[in-house]
Write a structure and sequence with these properties.
CATH topology of one domain in chain C: Rossmann fold
Largest sheet of chain C: 6 strands, mixed
Strand content of chain A: under 5%
Oligomer: heterotrimer
Subcellular location (chain A): Cell membrane
CATH superfamily of one domain in chain C: P-loop containing nucleotide triphosphate hydrolases
Protein name (chain A): Peptide/nickel transport system permease protein
Membrane topology (chain A): Multi-pass membrane protein
Number of domains of chain A: 1
Largest interface: B-C, 64 and 69 residues
Order of helices and strands of chain C: EEEHEEEHEHHHHHEHEHEEH
Distance between the termini of chain C: 42 Å
Structural class of chain A: mainly alpha
Strand content of chain C: 15-25%
Number of strands of chain A: 0
Distance between the termini of chain A: 22 Å
CATH topology of chain A: MetI-like fold
CATH architecture of one domain in chain C: 3-Layer(aba) Sandwich
Largest sheet of chain A: none
Number of strands of chain C: 11
Bound molecules: adenosine-5'-triphosphate, magnesium ion
Radius of gyration of chain C: 19 Å
Chains: A mainly alpha (299), B alpha/beta (259), C alpha/beta (284)
Order of helices and strands of chain A: HHHHHHHHHHHHH
GO biological process, one term (chain A): peptide transport
Shape of chain C: globular
Structural class of chain C: alpha/beta
Family (chain A): Belongs to the binding-protein-dependent transport system permease family.
């Protein structure tokens, strides 16, 4: 243990690998010194675990099997979170619903982050006509109200979680492109870019190795901070009946299904609501912590 | 063809229309292979801009530039880039804030496909007198002089033929300045390098260069032998003023003579 | 404009230490430095990386985050800097003590015009109208011999030459009229003519307004001819304190070595003398 630590923190790393591992480790140390970030990380890890281990935590059958005799039961030892209007176990549904939430988060992040980053960096670095065309494109997408476009999109395809994800992704990337472009414009003027050009580095190389590391943290942070909004939009679409379709245990749809019983059987919509809140909060805290930890000027 | 650098009637303009500003106005000089040429003069007179034009970082608005025996290409190939290297004036701005020193030195080696990278990185650190333990530090963890040495090492690691040096020792204490200047002299002798050196320190220019151009307001007012720099024999009034100011601040500079 | 009696030292430093707890171990940048300063010009010279800039930043309490500043005493104009809270420090910086950073262009805001930045600095410390601030800013730019202040006023930092950025920074710091000015290599990018003029301004402020000036520089000849006293630093410590006029009588081998390494206009030599550093210099 001690050996590994001193290897990671060596004053004179013997190899680039050791130096890189050391850098990860120091970032981790910085992150772990921040209790709020750790709470965020814990929540995100919990989400991951629950998604990964869902079938072992709660039987899959319980998600769909209806039991009309046991409708709307309050939380008890048998049903930890109670049951919904069709007598399905809410605990099982929330746990399995985490898979859907995770899928939304992962897919949106995979589409939105790189797309926005690349478009923004290329526009900002290359400039000229490329910039103008790419930015007009961005403006067009930015001009659409997000939920309305998502609605139209889902209505044109078929309602379902995939359409919801696609709709969210397509309406979410423009702010990332703008962010990346603004940063690139400032970076492009600096002497270290001029130095890279003078060394003969090609434009793609400069974008990848000089511009991207500087844009990346703000994009990652913005993405984690936006995750909350993305989860909420997905939930909103679910709530409107345009996202995940029943009987899928999507949290937003579950909140919607329980809205008729809020006053008397609060748990039916509150518990999935709390799950949404918690996961949003987790990503938010983690995003804040990452912002501090990823800045090497801090370590 | 034995001129390494040939500049004729160089003009550089920044901005457009009424807001345009002519930073360099008709500058001409030549530097033969294996020689060093000094540029001194007023702050803001366009010295750095000339170096940037020679390394194709700004487009001239007029005039002709020849480097290493050919006209300056519009989009220089890698081989050209390797042969002509620039040490930037500002060691704070010219190092990437998120690249470690190791990465900063490795990057050019990778771009040009050099072999024995480990060895070369360590050698260049040793050459500029930076302890090897700084290798994995980031620029913000170094002092001004330490950064400047990284910037010099980065230019040297590519083994260029023509080195454009923009105030390479302004942030170094004199003992390290002496080491760097000696290193540059040795390299020049060993590899027949050509230097174009910008400095405000007339003694440094006189020590390093064969000939010197004195600049003021975008123009060269005088080109002279560096012997004249030592004695202060100039024709142009600006050069004379410059030389007079270099003799120390108000009081007699003789106090420094070690008895 | 100040309540300090003229005899009291403007600056008292005792046992100042600054260390950076990097995760790869402790870097001790300053290791126990003590000095006091009145209304004079104090030069600091020394090895690159010996902690000169760090002392300046410590006096401003601007040492970046992992850095830890400790010491027995750190007083600016009788006010304790070590125990001051962020509010007091805000009043102190600019008002009592200001610093011209070694990296002038780096410390300017890259997306703000030069003129606007100087104006803001003025308005932060003096209640003046925007118009008056603009006039002051223009004056300050002229004072540091910027030949075309109208143009420079509207420039962004990346559009300035090295020396112009340095002078913009000086103009900004002077317009706040501090009691103590720390100038970290203020003239390294200036040609000798402008350098002399900028030094004359600083000299004036010291002799007329009674400002205290700390001048960090590598230029031995300049420090010897400009300053009253010189501190020589090596590896985070002061190894020697000298009257500037007596630099030639230095006894520490590092100082003597520095003088020997200077290239001189008056004599040509093919090689410059270099220095053999003795590890013993960093001890004790
Ligand atoms: N990108 C730019 N846009 C507009 N003006 C510029 C730009 N770069 C430089 N200039 C102007 O060109 C002039 C010459 O600048 P340059 O950096 O070449 O001066 P220099 O001789 O190197 O001065 P110093 O000794 O102070 O570094 C300056 O007046 C500067 O304001
Ligand atoms: N953030 C940091 N983390 C670790 N070490 C640092 C950090 N900042 C500075 N140092 C180290 O502290 C030492 C003192 O730095 P400082 O900038 O004060 O030197 P200096 O005397 O001003 O040198 P120069 O004349 O080259 O500017 C240097 O060895 C530097 O590497
Ligand atoms: Mg310059
Ligand atoms: Mg310094």
């Amino acid at each position: 243990m001690n050996n590994a630590r001193s290897w990671l923190l060596a004053d004179q790393p013997a190899s680039p690998l050791q130096a890189r591992m050391g850098r990860f480790y120091t970032s981790w140390l910085a992150l772990s010194a921040n209790p709020l970030a750790l709470i965020g990380l814990a929540i995100v890890v919990l989400l991951l675990l629950s998604a990964l281990l869902a079938p072992w935590i709660a039987p899959r059958d319980a998600v769909y099997v209806q039991n009309l005799d046991g409708r709307l039961q309050p939380p008890s030892l048998l049903h930890w979170f109670g049951t919904d209007e069709l007598g399905r176990d809410l605990f099982a549904r929330v746990v399995h619903g985490s898979r859907i939430t995770l899928m939304i988060v992962a897919l949106v992040a995979i589409i939105v982050g790189p797309l926005g980053l690349i478009i923004g960096m290329v526009a900002g670095y290359v400039g000229g006509w490329t910039d103008r065309i790419l930015m007009r494109l961005t403006d067009i997408f930015l001009a659409f109200p997000r939920l309305v476009l998502a609605l139209a999109f889902v209505a044109a395809l078929r309602p379902g979680i995939e359409s919801a994800i696609l709709a969210i992704a397509i309406t979410s990337w423009p702010p990332y492109a703008r962010l990346a472009r603004a940063e690139t414009l400032m970076i492009r003027r600096s002497d270290f870019i001029a130095a890279a050009i003078a060394q003969g580095a090609s434009a793609p190389r400069i974008i990848r190795r000089y511009v991207m590391p500087l844009c990346m943290p703000s994009v990652v942070i913005r993405l984690t901070l936006d995750m909350a909004g993305i989860i909420l939009t997905a939930a909103g679409l679910g709530f409107l009946g345009l996202g995940a379709q029943p009987p899928s245990p999507e949290w937003g749809a579950m909140v919607a299904a329980g809205r008729g019983y809020v006053l008397d059987q609060w748990w039916v919509s509150t518990i999935p609501g709390i799950a949404i809140l918690l996961v949003s909060l987790g990503f938010n805290l983690l995003g804040d912590g990452l912002r501090d930890a990823l800045d090497p000027r801090q370590s | 063809m034995n001129e390494a650098i040939e500049v004729s009637d160089l003009e550089v303009t920044f901005g457009h229309g009424t807001k345009s500003f002519k930073a360099v106005q008709g500058v001409s000089f030549t530097v033969p292979f294996g020689q060093s040429f000094g540029l001194v003069g007023e702050s803001g007179s366009g010295k750095s801009t000339i170096l940037r034009a020679l390394s194709v970082l700004v487009r001239p608005s007029g005039g002709r530039l020849q480097v290493a025996g050919g006209p300056l290409p519009l989009h220089p190939p890698k081989t050209f880039r390797r042969r002509v290297q620039l040490v930037f004036q500002d060691p704070y701005a010219s190092l990437h804030p998120r690249h470690s020193i190791d990465r900063i030195l490795r990057e050019p080696l990778e771009v040009h496909g050099f072999d024995r990278r480990e060895e070369r990185i360590l050698q260049s650190l040793d050459e500029v007198g930076l302890p090897r333990r700084y290798r994995y530090r980031y620029p913000h963890q170094l002092s001004g002089g330490q950064r400047q040495r990284v910037a010099i090492a980065r230019a040297l690691v590519l083994e260029p033929e023509i080195l454009l040096l923009d105030e390479p020792t302004s942030a170094l204490d004199v003992s390290i300045q002496a080491e760097i200047l000696n290193l540059l002299s040795d390299l020049r002798e060993a590899r027949q390098l050509t230097y174009l050196l910008v400095s405000h320190n007339l003694a440094v220019v006189a020590h390093m260069c064969d000939r010197v151009a004195i600049m003021s307001q975008g123009k060269i007012v005088e080109v002279t032998d560096s012997r004249h720099l030592r004695t202060g024999t100039f024709t142009h009034p600006y050069s004379q003023q410059l030389w007079a100011s270099s003799q120390g601040y108000f009081r007699d500079p003789a106090v420094l003579d070690v008895g | 404009m100040t309540s300090i009696s003229p005899e009291a030292p403007l600056l008292e430093v005792e046992g100042l230490r600054v260390s950076f707890a990097t995760q790869r171990g402790l870097v001790e940048a300053v290791r126990g430095v003590s000095f006091a300063m009145g209304r004079e010009k104090l030069g600091i010279v020394g090895e690159s990386g010996s902690g000169k800039s760090t002392i300046g930043r410590a006096l401003m309490r601007l040492v970046p985050s992992p850095g830890v500043v400790t010491g027995q005493k750190l007083k600016v104009g009788g006010k304790d800097v070590l125990s001051a809270n962020e509010r007091d420090l805000q009043g102190l910086r600019g008002g009592k003590i200001a610093m011209i950073m070694q990296d002038p262009k780096f410390s300017l805001n890259p997306v703000m015009r030069i003129g606007t930045q100087i104006e803001e600095a003025i308005r932060m410390h003096r209640r003046v109208t925007r118009k008056a601030a603009r006039a002051h800013a223009m004056e300050a730019l002229l004072a540091v011999r910027i030949s075309n202040p109208e143009r420079v006023y509207h420039c962004f930092p990346h559009e300035l030459s090295g020396g112009m950025g340095q002078r913009a920074m000086i103009a900004m710091m002077l317009s706040t009229q501090p009691d103590v000015l720390i100038a970290d290599e203020p003239t390294s990018a200036l040609d000798v003519t402008v350098q002399a003029q900028v030094l004359a301004i600083l000299d004036d402020l010291v002799s007329r307004r009674g400002m205290g000036l700390i001048m960090i520089s590598h230029d031995l000849e300049l420090v010897a001819s400009f300053c009253d006293r010189v501190l020589v630093m090596y590896a985070g410590r002061i190894v020697e304190t000298l009257e500037a006029s007596a630099l030639s009588r230095a006894v520490h081998p590092y100082t003597r070595g520095l003088i020997a390494c200077l290239p001189r206009l008056s004599e040509a030599s093919s090689r410059l003398q270099t220095m053999q550093r003795d590890p013993a210099w960093s001890q004790v």
